[in-house]
Specification:
Elements (H helix, E strand, L loop, with lengths): L1 E3 L14 E6 L5 H20 L5 H22 L3 E8 L2 E8 L19 H8 L2 E6 L4 E8 L16
Antiparallel strand pairs: 1-2, 2-3, 3-4, 4-6, 5-6
Helix pairs in contact: 1-2, 2-3
């Protein structure tokens, strides 16, 4: 794994972006390493920037990273890049891989074993999009970091 902390050149009226990136080869240990990257990033967001990260957000971000990296390793058969970026009160999780085929959530089937990762990611995130790139694709999911004081998951309407 090659981990690189990046920050762009901010305009004078903006703070530098808070983000981390890591490249993975597509091997069996990459999924756990990517989860560790996410947990460590959110821990630093809390400690260094004083932003609240709920237990739910910590778990959801790790789950989403795990599912997206698993899909990249399974379907792209090669390297992938993971970017985590703080965006307001959310974290954007972006996974780049070399497979050109865009993922499609399958219809619900209670008899199907496995292959529910994309459905899960789409259900727990406040934003989800996939874009084809000149080489492969870029998948981005957004997770709100703090729950609302009333106990509702931030970014979701009650009952969802």
């Amino acid at each position: 794994m090659d981990e690189v902390a990046r920050s762009g050149e901010p305009r004078s009226d903006q703070a530098a972006p808070v983000m981390v990136s890591a490249a993975y080869e597509g091997g069996p240990t990459d999924i756990a390493e990517a989860r560790d990257l996410a947990r460590d990033f959110l821990t630093r967001v809390q400690a260094d920037h004083g932003l609240p990260v709920s237990d739910r957000a910590m778990d959801v971000v790790q789950l989403v990273v795990s599912e997206l990296v698993t899909n990249a390793c399974k379907h792209a058969h090669g390297p992938c890049l993971v970017d985590l970026e703080l965006s307001g009160g959310s974290v954007d999780i972006t996974v780049w891989d070399s497979a050109p085929t865009l993922p499609v959530a399958r219809a619900a089937d209670p008899g199907r074993v496995g292959q529910h990762g994309l459905e899960i990611v789409m259900a727990v995130c406040q934003g989800f999009e996939v874009h084809r790139e000149p080489v492969g694709k870029r998948t981005t999911a957004s997770v709100v970091l703090a729950d609302d004081p009333g106990g509702d998951v931030a970014g979701r309407a009650p009952g969802l």
